[in-house]
Design brief:
CATH architecture: 2-Layer Sandwich
CATH topology: 60s Ribosomal Protein L30, Chain: A
Radius of gyration: 11 Å
Number of helices: 3
Helix content: 25-40%
Number of strands: 4
Strand content: 15-25%
Largest sheet: 4 strands, mixed
Length: 82
């Protein structure tokens, strides 16, 4: 499990929300699922690379959803800066 992702106040879940938070400079660390649609995750990876933000690949969308303590799969998630 990735530390902090289960904390509702410290994370964003979903590609759109993550990209928005990245643009606003709020993300400390991003996570993407290996089995997610490449068109979705590539935008996150590229943005993280350009902004020098760590981006970790997680085994599956199901595992990322579990790590975020939600009942659905997740393609991407991020930890907010403290």
């Amino acid at each position: 499990m990735h530390e902090g992702l289960a904390d509702v106040d410290r994370r964003v879940v979903g590609t759109k929300q993550l990209l928005r938070a990245l643009d606003e400079g709020k993300i400390a660390h991003a996570f993407i699922a290996k089995d997610a649609d490449l068109l979705l995750t590539k935008r996150v990876v590229d943005r993280c690379y350009a902004m020098n933000i760590p981006c970790t690949e997680v085994e599956s969308m199901e595992k990322l959803g579990r790590d975020c303590a939600i009942d659905v799969k997740a393609a991407a998630a991020g930890l907010l800066k403290r």
